[in-house]
Amino acid sequence: MANDENDLITGVSAQVPIAVSAVSFDSEVVGEQGLRTQGIHVWFAKHHVLEDVCLDFPANSVTGLIGPSGCGKSTFLRVLNRMHEFIPTAAMAGEVFLDGEEIYGPKVDATAVRLKVGMVFQKPNPFPSMTIAQNVLAGLKLANIKVLDKDSLLEECLMRAGLWKEVKDRLKASGSSLSGGQQQRLCIARALAVKPKVLLMDEPCSALDPASTLKVEETIVQLSSDMTIVIVTHNMQQAARVSDYCAFFLSDGGPGQVVEADRTAVIFSSPTDARTADYVQGRFG
User: Fold this and answer.
1) Which of 78, 124, 133, 141 is most buried by its number of CB atoms within 10 A?
2) pTM (2 decimals)?
3) What Å distances lie between residue 129 and 91, 112, 173, 240, CA to CA?
4) 9-280 is classed in which CATH architecture?
5) What is the pLDDT of residue 33?
6) In the predicted model, is pLDDT for residue 260 greater than 70?
7) Distance between CA atoms of residues 87 and 110, nearest Å
8) C-alpha distances in angstroms, 235 versus 36, 68, 145, 222, 232?
9) 28 phi and psi, to 5 degrees?
10) Closest Cα to residue 263, out of 27, 118, 63?
């Protein structure tokens, strides 16, 4: 982390000189609350894929992770809720804090972490044998979480995911009967049912048409009013539309690292590093 705990994001590289930008916030916004990482390194076997990534994610905001394919954005995303542990040969170093607690601590249950830090994947993945209602509530059953009023929770999650009006009269239909965009919002509703504090999204609109993409983006903006969202996207227009902050990842032939991170408006209008400007303006990637 930067010495000043109010600094937003710091990127460090041992191989490439990096101009680091920082943004200050009130202590109650950043402070000890929310999600923050320090010195993250990731390897797959002997392949070093991420180097010294330090990022803070302010509460009630959307942070976009941008950069070319293969620079470690999705890998970093999986580190944030310990899903990288499912990948054979994966190893990591560094620290990830959620509300001041290190999620890789020896006494921390990885399953409990994944309830607090939810995930929405690139392709919609509703459970095909379950109804729409069962899909939304599936996480509760798997985590053995008891809820007194499932109907109210079901409606709340579908409302927050922007899907309630479209499916309220066919909750017993198969989740796979929905369109691609509806399935993705169903997966968002499923993630919301366990009340996560953070929602990770790995290119959630890459398989969707423009109209469905717009609805998912509207959902992201609405959800960010009371939760932290981190989204990987290759769509620069989408990053500009939905994110409050952006972190630009690049590998430059070595491990992926953060070249620059700042408020989205700064990244797109006056970035410090010429490579950031080249990327957001479409000169490469």
Assistant:
1) 124
2) 0.87
3) 34, 26, 10, 37
4) 3-Layer(aba) Sandwich (3.40)
5) 63
6) yes
7) 14
8) 24, 11, 36, 19, 9
9) -70, -15
10) 63
